User: What shape does this take?
Amino acid sequence: MLSALNSVFDPIGFLAPFTIQGRILWRELTAGSGWDEPLSESHVQKWDGWMTTMNELNSFGIGRMFVPLSVSTAEDVELHIFADASTAAISAVGYVRMEACGTAHIGFAMGKAKLAPSQSHTVPRLELCAAVLVVDVGATLSEALGIPLDSLHYYSDSKVVLGYLSNTTRRFYTYVANRVQKVLQTSRADQWSYIPTHDNPADQATRCSMTAKNFDMSLWIKGPQRLQRVQGENPKDGYLCFPLIDPEGDAEIRSDVKSFKLSMKPYQGFGTARFERFSRWENLVRAIMFLKNFARRLAGSVKGSDSHRQIKDTDLHICTEKQIIKQVQQEVFCKEIDCLLKGKALCKDSSIQSLSPFIDEDCVLRVGGRLNNSDLDILQRNPVLIPKHHIAVLLIRHYHEKVLHQGRHLTEGAIRSAGYWIIGMKRLVSSVIHKCVKCRRLRGTLGCQKMSELPIDRLTPGPPFTSVGMDCFGPWQVTTRRTRGGQADSKRWAVLFTCLTTRAVHIEVIEQMSSSAFINALRRFTAIRGKVKIYRSDRGSNFIGSVEDLGINVESDGVKQYLSSDGSTWKFNAPHSSHMGGVWERMIGVTRRILDSLLMNIPGGGLTHEVLTIFLAEASAVINSRPLTPVSSDLDNPYPLSPSVLLTQKSDSIVDIVIPTDVKNMYRAQWKRVQILAEIFWRRWKSEFLQTLQCRRKWTSDERSLHSDDVVLLRDKEVARNYWLLGVVTRTITSEDGKIRKAEVRVITQSGKPTTYTRPVNEMVVLIPFEDSK
Assistant: This one.
């Protein structure tokens, strides 16, 4: 039997799956049996079956070439080697892949199989032994075919072994470490890839179940499907670094031992960099005092009564302040202090040379100056020199709070009186006061933003009152009827409609500030002036309520669709932003002044509804006749441009228009007159009035835009500044030009409930910007 097994001559391992079956069978037959003992019937059957399989292989032929073309004529030559192991055997098989004319050819190159060690080895160890066998096969084929070793591709179905090869952090025990080192001597970790077991051709030799039937079409001969890829495609999708599988529970991996190195430096005093953790001078001094007291208690040096301890604490406070200042001075003015201690003059480039500094008996650097002969206290005669350091900011904050958040002069005076001379104090004090939140709350300016561009409805010529701005004003006391007890009075309000293009006005009187009254005024206005395309108004409750009574919600898409179908759009300004409606707010002021002049002429001061209506009509006539542009001294334009020219079609400036007396041309002549009047108005409107809107008279520069999470103070004109609400900006609203002019602010009301308001930037004071809160 041994001679039959050795008679199989297979130098390239073509029949390795069958030879390894015979060797496994031979080990099984010889284990525990003597040489002279006969075989059992089951062993005889296994042996006869293997011999039959070997006889069937006589008809298989092996080609002399790996693939049907020469290596020298191939466009691309690759070598792929696969590894696998089981408790019975380990194997390796390699394939040559060549490309020519866009076609890939795969050929069996070499196979090798060995019996697994008879000792109790774990499967990961056997898989690692298979990896060693693979690199040996790869070295043999690389030398025979002339393919560089660093271009070979290796495959394994064990992620444990792949983790061993990719490991760079943990250490292994000797058995695994030696074999990993041997594998990595010939290959690199990035040359190894994972292949599933069912696609691994080396698995055919370790299972020991292959038969001669269809052997020429088996995975062992043909190779895996992944090698049949299209031309130019990478055999693997980049290098994948495999992690260790359970590094803490793997018996082959050494325990991770951490070592620590302790380095000691000589004590040079506490560093001043930690001072930046403190925001108040008193907190810093108390923290150092606590450390000193703690050290003294540990040393057992704190004894005596509470009064004695209090005296010591007072002295300790003064001593701690000096120690902090000396430490900072030593770090910043180290060169100057060395020169003074050695008795040398300061360098000319020193920043404190003009102050004639000296060191006192407590080793504190002080200002010399020219007041040494005066009888002033040493704190005022020779103040302590404070460099540009974080403690300078702490001292400024400390004395700024002592003067109750007053201005720069009072803060500087308090610092100088306390005996401190801070380098660059004026600028540093101004910076601290500018960032002080309480000062911002007491005296901070309201927000501002660059004046926006004019909307298109103010710049487009068209019929009067196509684009309208409106507001309500009043009230006035009017006499409605006389009774026995006197006379009954009631109130009246007025609704002003102003044309955004021609600046003409129309005023309607209403009997009450309600939605129904405003709707009636709106209907009267549209009946006289015609349909309006765009309405603009403040966010008054009467305006919002009026559209709600009409079944319209101005904030939803339904109102937009409704107004669009009707040819109208209603736009509201942000709450508390009357400056956004300056077009109609200015007209209200002019109307009030004219009305006040008219009311002075009423005898007895009695004002009725009819008189008020007449006076408002006369006031609107006066406003509409006002010149829109400066009065010209040119003889060709003797009359100013006013809205009444377009509204009434009457103007003394049109005196040269002659209407034909022929009856048949009467209507056409009247049409010509209206057209000429309109053309004259719009020509002068463009050339004279529109140019006056070009310049920004205020709010000319870009300001900081609000950000979400800014802490702001909301202005309330009805209460004092100390009672204004604090809020946080939750959302900013960007205008058409990209500027932020309004935002949503979340505040906590007096009832304790969170509420969100929409406010313009000029109603907010920024206390803590978003970038300062990080």
